[in-house]
Batch of 3 targets.
Target 1
Amino acid sequence: MRKTLLNWLLLGCLIANQPANAQTGLSERIRLNQIGFYPAAAKVAIIVDEQGGAAANVFQVTTSDGKKVVYSGTLSEPRKNVISGKMARTADFSSFRTTGTYVVNVPGLGYSYPFAIRPDVHHGVAAGALKGFYYQRVSTELPEKFAGQWHRPAGHPDNHVLIHPSAASASRPAGTVISSPWGWYDAGDYNKYIVNSGITLGTLLSLYEDFPDYCKTLTVNIPESKNKLPDLLDESLWNLRWMMTMQDPADGGVYHKLTNAKFDGMEMPDKVKPTERYVVQKSVTAALDFAAVMAQSARIFKGYSRELPGLADSCKAAAIKAWDWAKLNPKALYNQDAMNKEFDPDVVTGTYGDRNADDEWIWAAAELYLTTKDDTYYTAVNLFPDDKTPLPSWPQVRTLAYYSLARFSDQLTSRGKQDLPTLKSHITQLADQLRQDVDKHAFQTPMGKAASDYIWGSSAVAANQGIALIQAYRLTNDATYLDAALANMDYLMGRNAVGYSFVTGFGSKTPMHPHHRPSVADGIEAPVPGLLSGGTNANAARQDKCAGYTTTVADEVFFDNDCSYASNEIAINWNAPLVYLANALEALQGKIGMSAKK
């Protein structure tokens, strides 16, 4: 017995010090962040053990050429993936901190995609995700100097936009021509939607408010990079200025979207068939999302009054007018089917409809309160109607209000300060649920603990979970929240059940065929970079009916094909939380790993 045990120990030592075996080659069963790790951060790879027995119990970290072993360790005991039933084991090399480029090798199985260990390791993704918005700009040429091989002519000038009959008013009857340029293409299509722009800009502007000094250093090579504004604000302005054109100056109402009657074909923006573009009916959700963003913008751009004279005041006035319109029209929900029964032409593009506006009222009230310091807004609605803290998404923006109130907790009026314990409880409760028992789950990330995470746009679920954890960290200085947020960044960059980095152009295995018209039509093999694919979606096959899905397992339903708009489209409201998460981690990298030192 002793001799057998000794033989196994000797064999283990030999394997642990043997360089990567070229015969085994790359193994996609080793899942990790394909970009890399901060030196002091947790460093984890997950070995997917489909057969229930790994090739070895040990692993190595080697130089990227496989010639030198720099770290050896033992795999964890197997854990069962409660969604797929497959087994997973962890290779934890957190104690290895030497900068360089490496692979993880499991003898008999193979080696991982390469990754780096270094400071600022996510800077490229962080900057690239913000640059992704530049590629979505409407009404402007993208010159090669800024867009590289993805340069293109301008499309959709939007200087001749019609008032749809559903949006007609006394001062703007149906058929009235307005100019509404700028903005971002919303997703894979070429339309512009106020509701989705709301959460998108709210998230980007929150990054600036949370980390202003860091954001002032972030440059991404856009035409405005040499002016005196941070690139994050310059890019945000491109959409903000469009949003301001969507407000009816007569009554303060906000048109729900600017759109074709039908989706454009899969062509470049300048090549699509000319067709009328419309602004459609005003809605209460559009007005309130608009009010929230304008109030937040007024706070931020007040600090740039010399560069942008009058903008902050204009934003504040626009926010108040939109709020007042919403108070007069609280039941004006957008119902596209009902609209099409009453008005022509029918509009069949994205709806962004909502069953109620309770959460939009809360967000708008909070932002207007913070900007004006007027308690009337704070008490206009019940900011804490229950003990829930829903994860932000375009139809559920309540928690954005909580983030903003917490951000300025030391500047609240006495009325607002009365609710600080409740506010803190809401944010930490959500974060506690996210980080609870993470180590017991297959991929050891907050994302994916339940199959319900795998919805349309699940990548944004992961990114927004990361933001929620960072907000809790900012409130408490508890570094375990920050570590959990970083784990979700690992998820997005490859530590997941399909082994993809979901960000185009960043990682070794990334989406090459997103549902994104320019990426399909530009004739370039590589898709436009810096765009976050929607990601795994349990119901994708039923929703888009794209032929080619190979599984129904909730955390594995992903198809890198441009027909898979339910799993592989891109969208501005998905990119925004990626921009926040990646840049916040860069800003806070000096705090990462602190929980391990306690």
Target 2
Amino acid sequence: MPRQQQGDVRTRAPRGGLEQQLARLDGAQYGRYKGLVGSWELPAMNGADGADALAGSGATLELVRAQADPFAPPARVVVHVPAGPAGFPPELWRTPVRRRALASFLARRAAGAAEGERALKVDGGGQEVLDRGSCQVADDGCVTLRFGLALPGKGRRIDAREAQRLLCRTVPAIAGRALRYASLDAGAVREFVETVEDSDALRAALPGLGLVAFVADGAVLPRGSGVDDRPASGAGVVPFASPEGLRVTVELPHAGPVTGMGLREGVSLIVGGGFHGKSTLLRALETGIWDHVPGDGRERVVARPDTVKLRAEDGRRVERVDVHAFVGRLPDGSDTTDFSTDNASGSTSQAASLCEAVEAGARVLLIDEDTAATNLMIRDARMQALVAKEREPLTPLVDSVRSLHTEHGVSTVLVMGGSGDYLEVADRVLMMDAYRPSDVTVRAREVASVPTGRHTEAGSGRPFPPVVHRSPDPASLQADARGRRKVRARGEDALSFGDHEVDLRAVEQIADPRQVTGIGLALELLVRRGHVDGDRTLTEALDLLDADLAAGAGPLLSVRDEDFAVPRRFETAAALNRMRGLRVRRITRAGAEEKR
């Protein structure tokens, strides 16, 4: 029988069991699947794979959205399992971190159980442990699994027999195998949850220790390949070993004392020859904002949550950003304190991205010379002698990176193998040699003491300017295109949002295509809830979004039930800033609107 408890807002399905209703629809027009939308008692399986333990327990199968025809996007199916029949001990779900970890474990098990079923797809995730819409564990221990299912048909007629197999046998079997504690390896569940809790605790400890990142001894940083994010293996893989002078010990809830390299706040430089592991280390720090699955090799490689990777991005849109700390007088007379362009250069795009990241709340910046704009990074003595400053509008980062830290508390970690000018401004210098790090700060300072003839271009003692906040216009962030909602991820690289195609290729900390979907939902939520209202600054709107999502994915599910992963505020802001139709007001430090 269909289920609907008191206070339940889910749609009531037709009377009779799901299998019985499907039998009546055999050969009917495909669109009549819509009549099954609603919540049903999870069918019995006659003892198969523990599914019968859920039958009659209050577990339900809900058809949230049916396909209009066989060629439409898959139907949306939700399985709800109450805490009792799910049977997970309270210690596995008593905190938000543990609930996220447990949900990730269950989603992976469900995806494995569904493997081979072409019509059914569960989003289990990759190496990162993200808060996903596909599986949620509530604060009372209830478990919810969401997935897409292509409802079967013969032409445009309902294939009831195949639908019965999928909905009345396959789905209950998956639930029985993946969503019940009694069906799982208890040791594996506990290891997964405790690994994630240790990682989260390690990240939370960083500010109190004055660190921006931590890399545990024994960590495996190299990945299988450019398209395989699993750890590299083989005799050539070098486990990470901290330089003695940078080694710290952190006490974790489950692993106990863990040693590794602690990168302190300030300006850190990673140097070394080509192919010796500089970028590999930076990439590990870049992904250290996420927790990782046991066996990944980076389980205890963490960075502060407000860490943002930057790069040059020719051609991107910039809307009213103050970049004058890096870009002065332009030949066309553009005002770089209020800079807009539809076609940014490498240098102006990187300058804008840095200022936008700081506006959004970033306190750690990661930059790799391989993907940076060279003319924004350095200008050596010979070039200073050849091109007079009055003819060069750019001020390189080397002249403002220290002020960025002293004035705004923003630390920077740079990979730099081609210029020694940063040795003069670095608090510490780490050399990578055949994937083995060493602290060469003392030697670097000796080298930097030899004059090069270069002079600072940022002005003697001139501080990095204050952040100029902007207020987005909600009318420029509409998800509708020609009267229809259009929000669609295109892999990790692009988001279709209303009339806009948002290029996200340079937003390198997106770890999963489902996060792009999450970014689209978050942008919708910002407008729907009035967080972006034309008056609040972007920073204030992002603070409200963080408060909404602090308890999990529920607010994004209220926008639309689909597979997504919850994004960070920084990737959401990055997408918003790249919208070509974006309009903003600028707010001065005194709170007044700036006029153009």
Target 3
Amino acid sequence: MPSSERCVESLSALSFAQQRLWFLDRLRPGRPDHNVPVAIRLRGPLDQGALVSALTEVVCRHEVLRSRIVVVDDIPYQVTEPVDTFVPTLTDLADLPVAQAEEQAHELVVQDAATPFDLSAAPMLRARLIRIAADDHLLLLVIHHIAADGWSVSVLWQEFSAAYRAAVSGRPAGLPELPLQYEDFADWQRKHLTGTTLREQLDYWRERLAGQGSSSFPTDRPRPALWSGRGDQVDIEFPAELTDRIRALGRTHEVTPFMTLLAAFQVLLAHHSDRPDVPVGTPISGRTRIEVEPLIGFFVNTLVLRTDLAGDPSFSEALGRVRQCAVDAYAHQDVPFERLVEELRPERDLGQHPLFTVMFQVEGPPALPSGLPGLEVSTQHVPYEIVKFDVEVSLTDRGDHFTGVLRYAADLFDRSTMERLARDYRELAGLLVGSPERPTSAWAAHLAPRASRSGPAPQPDGGQGPSADGQPTETELLVMEVWAEVLDVAPSGVHDDFFALGGHSLVAAKVMSRLSRALDLELPLPLLFYHPTVAELAQGIEAALLADLDSTHSHPDLLPAGEDQQP
């Protein structure tokens, strides 16, 4: 049995990052957008009991993996449940022909990876072990992002490996006691990010991102009003010869391969958008304190890199600008992206990511378990077509070359457009690295022409305005009362905007929760985003009330107690 002594229930506040994911789940419930699927192939004699024991040991050590979210007085909290809530699924396909077993295993992986989590139920980790043949297994883990990040996967496999080896030999895992739990970090973060520390860092980001509008990257189709997450990807590869030149140029200019590859991509973005400072998001570990390095949890933060390439600089000069932009961002990385969004309050749009729509990252090869007796371990690809950004470039540094993918929103782009973009990126990187002193515009003729911009898709109807006599309706008065209570600011009229009055995502959830209780009707959170004024929200609520009443009367068995069925 797992040896941890912290297998007890606990209650704690969420970190800022967790809070945003909880809000997004409330905004678009029942979606797998934040699933993190990881699969490995295990060939050789596997001890299934030892594997289950090892996974359970990890779940017991890291409370965040066996947690759930509860809402108390409209505030989300994290509750830790006993370790026995984690029950791996064992599926035996060994009696099937190999081809059929492989096909069914693939279907199970796709199905599990796309199955949403219920954040109100523990655990935040699901595991399925599929026996394909006597000495051939596939292990799939699906973790909700609210409980883990990329670094966490490495921690998980390290501890799993040690615990598996111990279980096979019949001894305790002997893993060192964890100095902290993720809840301790969340508590520290909320206490630390206050006062002067927060204000100074926010001032930097306000200045850096001032005047930043919505995405300027041209799309093939109008942006839908609501983000679907439907995506696809194309492969990217930088051969060994080009990789060597990228590293050599980086050493000359004292920049990392990440900065060199990012600079080339930002030159490409500037070409296609006709804008010199397209903002690009990039993940950073967020583990600025050594105490949190051995923990599993959602620590990763997102930085917005807005490099100014105005004036047609040489690529050497562009590298310097990218380096300075990145170094400055790293120095101000303590502000969680979620707080940045709340403070800067970009234009609300449920059809795109806030502050940036293009993501770029370079990472090492995926982590794997190691030292498992008698087992050969390899990565198993997990088909996963959910995207969170318009465009995301994810490169893997494999030492002698770079590989990766360009993921894109299929609602916005044709595959042929993204295939051209990937080819242009690889070709442009070679040209820029080969002649770094030439102006970046010198290579425009080698690239695909700038795409024409598609206009926005029609937006949902925002409502019909105030009541006919100019006086607030009863529903409008209720909305104004709840806003005043939650925002501590009384709306002056029915045209006041919730977000202009200081509302943000968490407060929006509070408002809709209280209105739902007052009306005894479940009101969806997106209603406030589509109808942000008092009058618009009131009319949206009235439409929901009418729809609920029509539904009740169309099903006599659902009539309220004491109400007679009409002939």
